Structures are given as C-alpha cells and as structure tokens.
Backbone:
C-alpha cells in the first residue's frame, strides 16, 4: 500500500479544518488504516473532538443497491 499521510500529517490537516471552520474531513478509502493509536482516521477524529466538535455524525453509512446488475454489489459485498 502507498500512502502519504501519517497520524502527524492527519492531525495537521485537522488543525487546518478547525482553523478555517470547515465542515469536516473525508477519506477515499481507509481499510488499510492502522487500528492502534497511530490510526490516521482516529488522529483526525480525536483532534476535532478536542476542539469541541462533539456534534460529530456517527450515523452508520450503509449503502444498498438491491437492483444492481452485479451480484457482489446487489448482495451487499459479502465476504468469502
């Protein structure tokens, strides 16, 4: 996997978001992110929470395409 972000650079981006009062952060893909304290996603979330962003949307983002012509998409991307 190739990445250019670290937990440090992600925290710096969170500072940029806070300073400019932007609406939030996003990632194209995060399945390769770490699961420990050096996680890029958690670095941003923690930094924004420290800034008082306690109104973070925690809604489950579940997309469904029951009419897709692709079996894996129509079936919810089952593993296996």
Residues:
């Amino acid at each position: 996997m190739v990445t250019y972000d670290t937990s440090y650079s992600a925290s710096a981006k969170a500072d940029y978001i806070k300073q400019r009062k932007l609406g939030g952060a996003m990632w194209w893909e995060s399945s390769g992110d770490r699961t420990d304290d050096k996680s890029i996603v958690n670095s941003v979330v923690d930094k924004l929470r420290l800034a008082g962003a306690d109104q973070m949307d925690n809604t489950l983002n579940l997309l469904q395409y029951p009419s897709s012509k692709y079996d894996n998409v129509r079936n919810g991307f089952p593993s296996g």
Residues 7-19 form the longest helix (13 residues). The CA atoms of residues 18 and 51 lie 7 Å apart. The mean pLDDT is 83. Helices lie at 7-19, 40-50, 71-74.
